Amino acid sequence: MSSAHFEFGLWLSALPLLLVAATLTWLLSLPLRNVGLAEPLWSLMLFAAGVWYALDSDPRAPRISPVLWLCALWSVRLAWHLALRNAGNVESRRHAEMRASHQPHFALKSLYLVFWRRAFTAWIVSLPLMGAFASIKPQGWLDYCGMLLWLAGFVFEVGADWQLKRFNANPANADAVLNRGFWRFTRHPNYFGECCIWWAFFLFALSAGAWWALPGPLLVTWLLLRAAGVRPFGGNDGNRRPQYADYVLKTNAFFPARPRE
User: Which pTM was predicted?
Assistant: First the structure.
């Protein structure tokens, strides 16, 4: 497989764009005292990076249109979902704990602890988008595999978010555990779906010859599995929801599988 050239200058040029977007969102978060604004910003920064790379790529690159459309659909849907979830709410427990543990002057510290960190992370994760546009090599079987994997990931992510939203909207479920639908097969179906989506973008990049885009999906996987996403025992959920311990014993943390008896 021929290798696509890595344009370090193009990749580097996207970083200031992401940092400016992060800084402006941070300024908006100050009067609201809510760093949760960084959550919907995440997917929008990645789409912005994709558009930035596309504008400087060869217009004959056959993956520009399909990859940008897929990225736009994922980005807008996730940003809208997170914005609605956080609208009118105080900071999440995780962000409130971060605010308390980084006093004094958390308002200033949040610029680099929350917003700039997301910008740098998005910059690395965006590598498959740049890679997909890096050559005019015709589409092949890897592109079709990428399309199928993206579709599977999107169905998992959207379906899991929808099921969880409906479940949480019912007051009768205050102490219950969602163990139906996608949540029957994995305790984090939405994270699994997002992981699939970014490995799908890497398949597009690999088809274009951009093997060097691998750090993008690797970082997403690490973040979801270790840094921010999957928790082995569900944190405080085991204390709030008595059924959660049984759910943990029977259900895989990340990769979908039939529940254990």
Answer: 0.91
